Amino acid sequence: MKIEVTKTTNSKLASIDFDNIPLGRTFTDHMFICDYEDGKWQNPRVEPLAMIPTHPAAMALHYGQAIFEGMKSTLSRKREPLLFRPYENAARLNASAERMGMPAFPEDLFVDGLKALVSMEQDWIPPVDGSALYLRPFMYADEPFIGMRAATSYKFIIIGSPAGPFFTKPVKLWAEKHYIRAASGGTGEAKAAGNYAAAIRPTEIAKSKGYDQVLWLDAQEHAYIQEVGTMNIFFKVDGNFITPTLDGSVLHGITRKSVIDVLRHKGYTVTERKISIQEIKEAAAQGTLEEAFGTGTAVGIAHIQEIGWGDDVIPVSTEFPVGKAVNDMLNDIKTGGEDPFNWMAPVL
Ligand SMILES: Cc1ncc(COP(=O)(O)O)c(C=O)c1O
């Protein structure tokens, strides 16, 4: 499908201080947008970023048919924009769409839309090491209708937001005993807006206790570890890595999938299985819990220092050498270094 392009006559680029970008608040000049009407996606276009007129009865506002993706474009050493595994995000968006009763978006058009937008916005990728253009593809129901059924019209949009170097400090997690993120048969595997809405209050409570993010436990027993607020989780116990199984309640993280490949490439054993929080507490007590880290697009790999669980404080480690080495390898691949897995897609 041909993508129509309308350029802005009023670029904000010159006003951006790349050394001081407020996270998530600065948006590039353009957006990619496509309409779903009469049973098909139509009119894909890149146009100046603008407000979108929304009917007060737009179904996404009432019934929550809204899904999204998160990914980044980085610059190679030759300053060419690259995308990291974009077809993985396209496939995950469609898995989310299916769960939420929304139409699939053509995967080639998803990637072509990203490329069309990033090729126009490449000067927005901050010229500072460790920076990227964060990309947010999303889809929502815009049909004005009061009634419980799948909508018949949707918008698919991609916006971009420059992100400065993300120096992650070690994080402290709060293992949540009361609230849950996802139950078997629910929407945990979908990147659905409602999952995040339900996580906001528990996250505020965790922060008020001095923790950075929630560590979600399973819905039935509150015993098994699922994932972190916006990250999947890995533990190194006695030399080997373990990460919770994708059991239907856990987001299929693209960083998670890539970290498993990098760890195995480096010769480590990685096992996907059920992991109880009690097991992690015991490993810490026995001195076999060597590392823990979270993985996600926004932060890359974040060192987990400590986990609070009721009255227990589970200390993890002050260093995370393997996690850091994996992060370095991923960053090298993303900035045009050797790419043994063939993950990077050039934009131009
Ligand atoms: C709930 C949740 N888990 C895990 C992740 C990590 O996924 P990815 O590595 O694809 O960014 C994210 C971020 O997208 C998330 O929101």
Question: According to CATH, what is the topology of the largest domain?
Answer: D-amino Acid Aminotransferase, Chain A, domain 1
| Structure summary, number of beta strands | 18
Question: Portion of residues in helices?
Answer: 10-25%
Give the ordered list of helices and strands. Answer: EEEHEEEHHEEEHEEEEHEHEEEHE
Distance between the termini: 18 Å
Cα-based radius of gyration, to the nearest Å: 21 Å
- Strand content range: 25-35%
Shape: globular
Count of individual domains: 2
Instruction: Look at the structure and give the CATH class of the largest domain.
Output: Alpha Beta
Characterization of the model:
Its cofactor is pyridoxal 5'-phosphate. GO terms for molecular function: L-isoleucine-2-oxoglutarate transaminase activity; L-leucine-2-oxoglutarate transaminase activity; L-valine-2-oxoglutarate transaminase activity. InterPro entries: Aminotrans_IV (IPR001544), Aminotrans_IV_CS (IPR018300), Aminotransferase-like (IPR036038), B_amino_transII (IPR005786), BCAT-like_C (IPR043132), BCAT-like_N (IPR043131), BCAT_family (IPR033939). The structure is a single chain. With 348 residues, the chain is α+β, with helices and mostly antiparallel strands. It has 2 domains: 4-167, 2-Layer Sandwich (D-amino Acid Aminotransferase, Chain A, domain 1), CATH 3.30.470; 171-334, D-amino Acid Aminotransferase, subunit A, domain 2 (D-amino Acid Aminotransferase, Chain A, domain 2), CATH 3.20.10. 25% of the residues lie in helices and 30% in strands. It is built from 7 helices and 18 strands. Helix 5 crosses helix 7 (321-334). The longest helix is centred in the middle third of the chain and has 16 residues, at 193-208. It starts with a strand and ends with a strand. Bound molecules: pyridoxal-5'-phosphate. Residues 70, 227, 230-232, 251, 253-256, 295-297 line the site of pyridoxal-5'-phosphate.
